[in-house]
Specification:
Layout (H helix, E strand, L loop, with lengths): L2 H9 L15 H11 L4 H5 L3 E4 L6 E4 L2 E3 L5 E3 L8 E2 L26 H7 L4 E6 L4 H8 L1 H10 L1 H22 L6 E5 L11 H21 L4 E5 L8 H6 L4 E3 L8 H8 L4 E6 L4 H4 L2 H14 L6 E5 L9 H12 L2
Parallel strand pairs: 1-6, 6-7, 7-8, 8-9, 9-10, 10-11
Antiparallel strand pairs: 2-3, 3-4, 4-5
Length: 332
Amino acid sequence: MTKRERVVQALKHKESDITPYHINFTTPVREKLVEYYHTKEIDAVIGNHFLDLEAGFQWKEVRTDFWQDHFGVVWDRSIDKDIGNPAEYLLSDKNQLDQYQFPEIKPELFNHIPNVIEKNQELFPFFSIGFSLFERAWTLRGMENLMLDMVTDSVFTETLLDWIVEFNLKVIDQAIGLPIQMVHFGDDWGQQRGLLMGPKYWRRYIKPRLSRMYQKVKEKGLFVSIHSCGDIEEIIPDLIEIGVDLYNPFQPEVTDIVRIKKEYGNKLSFWGGLSTQKVLPFGTPEEVKKEVKRLIKEIGAGGGYVLSPAHSTPKDVPLANVLAMIEILQNQ
């Protein structure tokens, strides 16, 4: 089977010849692997199954380790080289919203994607929209401000979220015309115990707007994938209801992944499952191998599973543990 075919089987809750897998890495870990394998083509070397595609929005370094995204937010990457933290909030004053200009969506931002897919036909191609709603709102407004807005100013909250949705719908319009098979939405709602804003406000503000975006993808016959860190178990039925096919990162630190797979595995597929808080950083290579084998056997049974670490492999994971994980995945 091709890698693309394996992922499709997983999304249809069917087993394939092996459990499909896809490992993401933080910049420091990827650099170690480049040195180890003597190539920058790490995804090909380890056998990753996904082809992750994005619009060509550009970031620019405005000063050393400070990068500005296409929304105008400047991120401090002096410590975290992959994401960073907003250095300031463009909508710290609610009155700034009326003057704020969302990025322009030009068709040429998507022109590179068909060629990339053509060159990687064995891989499963999906389009990513990061910071797709709640995260985009708080990076513009500030986390504390947005949480207070949800309670004290529903009009402002809904206006900001609706504008973000309208922007995303224009991006989705472009994406679903491409030869992709899935759209992946990134948006962290969870903390180690439960939802950041609680189920009441998630269902009031977030769910109906997610539904609009997801349904646009589903109407095109494509799969919907979501990423949300943290414990979001209480809204899994809601996610299934609004059309989610694949849930990432499936964190074993915050939920019983075996139970969740048994309970929802006939309606939802899972991507993740390997501990990035315990086993990968603190286990031995043999313990990592044992855990990967367990996940293949227990979670992979019956299909509906793409194995990976529960987040991009952190920089504190020893190289020997990364290689142990890769070894088992490659030799299924």
